Amino acid sequence: MNVRLEQPSASGTLASQGGTQAATIRLTAAQALVRYLAAQQVVDEDGVSTVPMFGGVFAIFGHGNVAGLGEALYQHRDVLPTYRAHNEQAMAHSAIAYAKAHFRRRMMAVTTSIGPGATNLVTAAALAHVNRLPVLLLPGDVFVSRAPDPVLQQVEDFQDGGISANDTLKPVSRYFDRIVHPSQLLTALPRAIRVLTDAALAGPVTLALPQDVQAMAYDYPRSFFEPRIVRFHAPAPGDEELEAAVQALRAASRPVIVAGGGVLYSRGGADALRAFAERHGIAVGETQAGKGALAWDHPLNAGAIGVTGSTAANALAHEADCVIAVGTRLQDFTTGSNTLFSQAHVIGINANAFDALKHRASALLSDARAALDALSERLGGWQANPAWTERARSLSGAWRETVLSRTHAAPAVDALPYDADVIGAVQRSGADSTRQDIAVCAAGTLPAELHKLWRAARPGGYHVEYGYSCMGYEIAGGLGAKLARPEREVIVFVGDGSYLMMNSEIATSIMLGAKLIVVVLDNRGYGCINRLQQACGGAPFNNLLDDCLQGPLGAPKIDFAAHARSLGALAEHAADIGEFEAALVRARSAERTSVIVIDTDPARTTNDGGWWWEVAVPEVSARAPVRDARAAYEAKLAQRDGTPTDETGRRGD
Q: Residue 314: which domain range?
């Protein structure tokens, strides 16, 4: 792709000296920033052609960015598209999802005004930080001159005159810079690109842009804006760490692989994982971020692992003597709050040292593909114990049969369907849909059910944000995934609670012609937390709508289909699974976003699989169920920590 980046000077003509192009070009800081972003190219997935690194900029304009950055984006709208959204947090979610759908090889920028527009980015930045996903945040900022201080929306700190609302983004940014002079872009932008494209650093980058600086002009080197191909950095394994990993594996007979998102973000990582598992006879359990790294029907795919994991993967992990954790943060849902494979030696393969050292692991700092290839070469013909490999194949096969039975069961008579019924209907509704659909979800019960039951056949077909478990990501994330993969059907699974938190990007999807299929499972409240509340001994309270404090009119009867139609979508309410499947057929053939609503059971879940998760239970309570739950909690802690308990199950410490 050829990118035309000719930019007029401040006087409206190209800067020149004696009839030749000058070595510098006079631009405002905003113009320079946009021109630089538009010049960055990356090698496409075909490994040959190049495409823009930035797929566009999401923007909601205000007084802090419309005059400076807005004017610059208009000048480059042909090579760097600007997308208008309806909520700052949501548009940042869309940008993050775009990067995730591109396996971190392409990304987007986001710009807001100062004040609430900027602080609305904090949640999204935290989500990107936790999930190690790149996004460039460009919030407007207050005047560097301080002449009109305080300006509209300015947050004043009584002890530090240099602080603005944008400082809330510092803890959730992998790199933060406030541009107080146009020349600073010459160092800040290359640093930003490095962080965004470094496997060990990837995450949100914030460049705070004071509105007066955006409008300031400076003579920039013309060479700074020459189109260039950005190279992604991922470390190769070091010899000593590699040899230690080889020796640990050779000493093991019951190894298991835990595949995280780093497998998918490594170019060729999924192929390397499959080859490694097959050559050495090792089963694979997948995290939420890593699901899809190995096809669901591969004989060595034991399914999801951890708190929301399969019976197969969890049984193998608990019996394993060595766990190869590839590209995973090993958060508590993966490790069962450090109880699932606490007996095993862990080899942490990760580009990021902070993540590689989790769970007391022996670190192998490396890109996933490079590490697996190098390990396999050094291991040669070594394999896991044949009986262990056969057991893994048997358990994995049995789990696939369980998944089939749960998602293809006949709907219960005179009872509401539950999530597994809906998931099964979606997968039955399209020809070869498991290979083409992208399932998008984020929070509540649905990620647990999808982790267990969604049959991901290829990398990228499973797009669930569960590192931050952020309600409201779903629809906005679906939009970002669709912008990244317009040729594929994007199915957004969202509960009624998350839908009510953030649904505005349905309107954006209509405006952009980015068709989604949004499936709303209405269980009349926060069903997931309601069950957790009761599991901890609590009374049903403030989660399901019927259990909330209410006025004289009672809980609202929400017509989600009518609401979605008001945003421009096609929408209907399905009375049962049969009607739901028929609606899915219509949605797949539609040309614009469709929303299908179905009432579901707030209490029922898939009981197969799962693992303990530590949620602290009150030590004292007037409620007997809480006291019983506390005793069960302490028994689990004792089991994990090796401390004795008395006859009631309470720890002796």
A: 239-399
> For the residues of 205-246, what is the DSSP string, one character each?
EEEEEEHHHHH-EEEEEGGGGS-EEPPPB-PPPPHHHHHHHH
CB contact set of 55 (below 8 Å; sequence gap of 6+): 81, 98, 102, 106, 107, 108, 483, 484
Instruction: Write the CATH number for 248.
Output: 3.40.50.1220
At 549 the three-state DSSP class reads: coil
Using a 10 angstrom Cβ sphere, with 0-12 exposed, 13-18 middle and 19 or more buried, the burial of residue 568 is middle
In this structure, what are the phi and psi dihedrals at residue 511, rounded to the nearest 5 degrees?
Answer: -60, -35
One-letter amino acid at 420 equals A
Q: Which of 416, 323, 464 is nearest to 605 (CA)?
A: 416
Give residue for tokens 């890593």: 290
Mean pLDDT, residues 254-261 taken together: 98
**What is the per-residue pLDDT for 409?**
87
User: For 113-125, what is the mean pLDDT?
Assistant: 97
pLDDT reported for residue 1: 38
Domain boundary among 550, 581, 599: 599
pLDDT at position 138 is 98
Determine the residue type at 529: I
What pLDDT band is residue 471 in, cutting at 50, 70 and 90?
A: very high
Judged by DSSP in three states, 499 sits in helix
140 within 8 A of 113, measured Cβ to Cβ? yes
Q: What's the pLDDT score for residue 555? A: 94
Same domain, 196 and 66: yes
Quick one: which of 315, 311, 346 has its CA closest to 329? 346
Examine the pLDDT at 36 and tell me if it is beyond 90. yes
Total structural domains within the chain: 3
Co-location of 163 and 260 in the same domain: no
The model's pTM: 0.95
Nearest Cα to 207, choosing from 148, 143, 135?
135
Pair (190, 258) in one structural domain:
no
Q: What average pLDDT is seen over the chain? A: 94
Task: Decide which of 399, 430, 453 is a domain's last residue.
Answer: 399
DSSP 125: H
User: Are 391 and 312 part of one and the same domain?
Assistant: yes
What b/e sequence results for 58-94 when a residue is b if at least 16 CB atoms lie within 10 Å of its CB, and e otherwise? bbbbbebbbbbbbbbbebbeebbbbbebbbbbbbbbb
Q: Is residue 429 part of a domain?
A: yes
Q: Note the pLDDT of residue 57.
A: 98
Question: CB burial class (10 A; 0-12, 13-18, 19+) of residue 534?
Answer: middle
| Residue 242 Cα to chain centre, angstroms | 29
Q: Are residues 506 and 436 in the same domain?
A: yes
